[in-house]
Amino acid sequence: MSPHELDWARMAAELAAQGFATTGPLMTATECQDISSAYGDDSAFRSTVVMARHGYGRGQYRYYSYPLPNRIQQLREQFYARLAPLAAAWGQAYPASLSEQLARCHAAGQTRPTPLLLRYGAGDYNCLHQDLYGEWVFPLQVALLLNAPGIDFEGGEFVLVEQRPRQQSRAHVVPLRQGEGVIFAVHAWLAQGTRGTQRRPLRHGVSTVRSGQRHTLGLIFHDAA
């Protein structure tokens, strides 16, 4: 299935209302397996991060190298084409195509690819964070779950924490099925409050995996310095 076939009217409304939206089913179990099973292919990745070494949590993730695998390149391009007009409503215009967006990043010295594949086992988790990477930041990103909750793993919920001005922070636990994604704000979303528009920072993470193995594909639309 292509991202172009998703319910973008619903997702746009959810992004405007809460800063994140689930995609509904996008990839088949076979497609998910094809992506996650390539985790051990060193030729596909530019670097590996062991999270415990940096205080990021527990587990690992690997950044893809260019050129990206075909399916991941297609997903990145197609999601970007749909997200760029939505991102403009958050205060800044962005190029219509991913290639133009990345050219802007590369001109600013952000040349390292940022799509990544994350792997968690029992006891692993990801601390709350934001994926900024440099001066040029596209305000939305996508995380796609590649394993089946309750079958391949237990626990490991996707979590967003919203910082609200002059109020306590609010946590969102986002239920996902295999092959489904969540679109969310990289740094902050613009909420319509009683006193006008409020910029509400979001951080995201993954709760502790109790058993099994969990893989996630992360699609970020700006490259890293």
The side-by-side strand order for the widest beta sheet comes to 1-11-7-15-5-4-2
CATH architecture: Sandwich
The H-and-E topology, N to C, reads as HEHEHEEHHEEEEEEEEEEE
CATH topology (fold) name? Jelly Rolls
pLDDT below 50 for ≥5 consecutive residues: which ranges?
Answer: none
- In terms of quaternary structure, what is this? single chain
Q: Mean of the pLDDT scores?
A: 94
Work out the radius of gyration: 17 Å
The secondary-structure class comes to alpha+beta
Give the name of the CATH superfamily: q2cbj1_9rhob like domain
Helix content: 10-25%
β-strand percent reads 35-45%
Report the count of strand segments: 15
The shape, in one word, is: globular
Q: How many domains?
A: 1
Largest sheet: 7 strands, antiparallel
CATH class equals: Mainly Beta
